[in-house]
Specification:
The protein has about 700 residues and is mainly α. About 60% of the residues lie in helices and about 5% in strands. It contains 29 helices and six strands.
């Protein structure tokens, strides 16, 4: 049985896959950066306070700053009081009055019927009255009803129903019914006889019912209206005030103060964890797409992407360590240092995207727009001030800008969003100043350290390489003085050209210094170092071409030995590209030799960066102009035009992003600088040199001595 064992991928294979497939690269960056950010977001804060009411405080908690807020707990208490004060709403039922009136009329009709029955004796009529279905009468009341005169009964029948309706005018709630029945006598006309009042009161008592019923909906609406009319209760917390005391049970009002001060750590449940993980992956995805689209150089460099991911995690972790809890301490954190450092190491666009992402992470942790602005706005000022970070003055200026930005954000939110006591304002102002200074210092240190750690070329490394005392430059001067002088001129041309087209002048200058270091292996093979015979006079042109082109390979070997940065190393083969070694190619043709053009071309590759392309043009132009017998401005201009046009026509600039407009500006810069270097000088004739007259002979004395 044949079994297939899957081959395990090595780290190199995985890295190659990530570099080759853009989709895999994006997914890898999002997963790695998103998961690391999520870990920082989900990590429990060490300075968080109480997250629920009912727990016993284990320490005093003081307000780090003053604030004012609307207390929902106290407002709710006031709303409940207002709702409880609302009277219950009852609705009147007209049908009850009609029913009661009908019952009363039926009772009177029944009494009248028995009173008018003359066929029955008195005793039987009294008994009949006590047995009426319309009304329940006792024997005494039945006797009163029978003994009333016709005038009394008629008056009773006419005036009893109005008395009933008078009772209903105020409305009768169920709980008031018994009391109302007991007081029915009060509704009867005062002029009635006692007998009329006794019968009338009994009839009313048996007819009266509650005509008001409780209206739950109307009552709830009235209570809600009362709640809505209650103004929110404002609470003022002063900096230094003890919000929760040690040993005290934390109440809902205490929690509100802690939340307003940003001191509540609610903890993380599974829903929050999923939400924060999704948030971290979303932000990482946005950063990845932005960098991939708008910062291609950073996106193609694994080391720079690692710095970006690390920077985002550092901002998130710093915020997580202090939010919630030490809300004032957050203002001391030099968040802007990250943006300033990334601007130099990775690029401004990538730094901007990373800083925005970090500010959003701080925002979701704190829930405060103020902190989002504090992380972002001063960082933008620092990025604008630091530029290329070529001098210490730029870091000082950037630190000042960051401090001003910090103070501006704090002052704005103090005026707009909250009040603060003098002590709290001074604390925040001190934090802003310290944050600004620390941002400048930390950015400087981070650029040096991370640039060395991740092998990212920094301005400091380039300045070290441009020092004439660098070992490699010292060797170039001592072993190949002609090449050294040529490199200096090429460096001047390259730097000026880079300035006019917006490339990096320092990279161009340093790259020009080292572009010909390979000539040190065989100095006499190059005409600028020859003082006598030319060894190529006795060699086959193809051999001479191979010797000349070998200085590229030798230069790369020296670059590896001295660990030159990739930007500088690229210029060594790029300054010739795959151009033709024209002198020996033409010489071979003149001698009638079989010529393979590929054997007379440099190994390449062609320049890929603007700086490498500039050095290529400067190298060819300087060498050609140097060979001119007469270096007039017109001849210099013609030679510059010819050399640059040949490079363009040969396709040597196809792989770098120099535009035709850039090339034109480069030619103009070359003409201007070379014309200044080779300007005509006024002769200094020897016969015009002033000569001192001979000293006069001292006179002899009269004595001859």
């Amino acid at each position: 049985m044949i079994r297939f064992v899957p081959r395990s991928r090595s780290l190199a294979d995985v890295r190659a896959l990530v570099q080759a497939d853009p989709r895999v690269r994006i997914v890898a960056f999002v997963i790695a950066t998103g998961l690391l950010s999520a870990v920082a977001l989900l990590f429990p804060s060490a300075v968080g306070s109480y997250g629920e009411a009912g727990v016993v405080a284990d320490r005093d908690v003081r307000a780090p700053h003053s604030t004012a807020f609307s207390s929902e707990a106290l407002s709710q208490i006031e709303r409940d009081k207002a709702a409880a004060a609302v009277q219950r709403v009852y609705a009147a039922d007209p049908a009850v009055v009609v029913t009661s009136s009908s019952h009363l009329q039926a009772a009177l009709t029944g009494i009248a019927r028995v009173r008018g029955d003359a066929t029955l004796p008195r005793d039987q009529r009294i008994a009949a009255l006590t047995k009426l279905s319309e009304v329940a009468l006792s024997v005494p009341l039945a006797t009163d009803a029978l003994d009333m005169t016709a005038a009394e009964f008629d008056q009773l029948s006419k005036e009893l129903d109005p008395a009933l309706r008078t009772i209903y005018q105020q409305g009768i709630r169920p709980e008031q019914l018994d009391a109302q029945r007991a007081d029915t006598t009060k509704a009867l006309p005062p002029a009635w006889t006692d007998r009329q009042k006794r019968i009338g009161a009994e009839l009313l008592k048996q007819s009266v019912q509650a005509n008001l019923s409780f209206d739950a909906n109307a009552t709830a609406a009235a209570q809600q209206t009362a709640r809505d009319n209650v103004a929110p209760v404002q609470v003022q917390v002063t900096a230094g005030e003890i919000v929760v005391r040690d040993g005290q049970v934390v109440t809902e009002q205490d929690l509100e103060k802690l939340r307003a001060l940003g001191l509540v750590n609610p903890g993380t449940d599974w829903k929050s964890a999923i939400g924060l993980l999704s948030w971290a992956l979303l932000i990482a995805g946005v950063v990845a797409l932005f960098v991939e689209r708008y910062a291609e150089e950073a996106w193609a460099d694994d080391r720079k992407l690692m710095v970006v991911a690390l920077s985002l995690v550092v901002i998130t972790a710093a915020g997580r360590a202090l939010i919630p809890g030490h809300i004032v301490a957050v203002y001391f954190v030099p968040f802007a240092a990250v943006a300033m450092m990334l601007t130099i190491l990775v690029g401004g666009r990538t730094a901007l995207a990373t800083q925005i992402a970090g500010a959003l992470h701080v925002g979701i942790m704190s829930g405060q727009v103020e902190l989002v602005a504090y992380v972002l706005v001063p960082a933008l000022l620092g990025m604008a001030a630091v530029r290329q970070a070529t001098t210490a003055r730029e870091f000082v200026a950037a630190a000042l800008y960051v401090a001003l930005g910090d103070l501006g954000v704090i002052a704005t939110f103090l005026f707009v969003g909250r009040s603060a006591d003098t002590l709290g304002a001074l604390q925040l102002a001190a934090a802003a100043l310290i944050s600004g200074v620390a941002s400048g210092v930390l950015a400087f240190g981070a650029i040096v350290m991370l640039g060395h750690l991740f092998r990212i070329t920094t301005v400091f490394e380039l300045r070290e390489l441009s020092d004439p005392n660098h070992p490699l430059l010292r060797q170039l001067l001592l072993r190949t003085p002609g090449t050294y002088h040529h490199s200096l001129l090429v460096a001047n041309l390259s730097e000026r050209a880079a300035e006019v087209i917006g490339a990096d002048p320092l990279v161009a200058r340093v790259g020009a210094y080292y572009h010909d270091i390979g000539k040190m292996r065989n100095p006499l093979a190059f005409i600028e170092n020859q003082t006598g015979t030319n060894p190529h006079d006795e060699l086959d042109p193809a051999v001479s071409a191979s010797i000349v082109s070998a200085h590229v390979r030798d230069g790369l070997a020296l670059a590896d030995r001295y660990r030159l940065p990739p930007q500088i190393r690229e210029i060594i083969p790029g300054h010739h590209g795959t151009s033709l070694i024209r002198f020996f190619h033409t010489l071979a043709q003149q001698r009638g030799l079989v010529v393979d053009e590929a054997a007379f071309r440099h190994p390449g590759p062609k320049p890929r960066s603007k700086e490498a392309g500039i050095v290529m043009l400067a190298d060819g132009t300087e060498a050609a102009v140097r060979s001119l017998e007469e270096k007039t401005p017109e001849q210099i201009s013609e030679m510059v035009e010819r050399i640059v046009s040949e490079k363009v026509a040969d396709g040597q600039l196809d792989d770098c992003d120099l535009t035709l407009r850039d090339v034109q500006r480069v030619k103009e810069a070359f003409r201007e600088l070379l014309a200044g270097v080779y300007h005509e000088r006024i002769p200094y004739p020897e016969d015009r040199i002033a000569r001192l007259p001979p000293a006069a002979t001292p006179p002899t004395s009269a004595s001859g001595t």
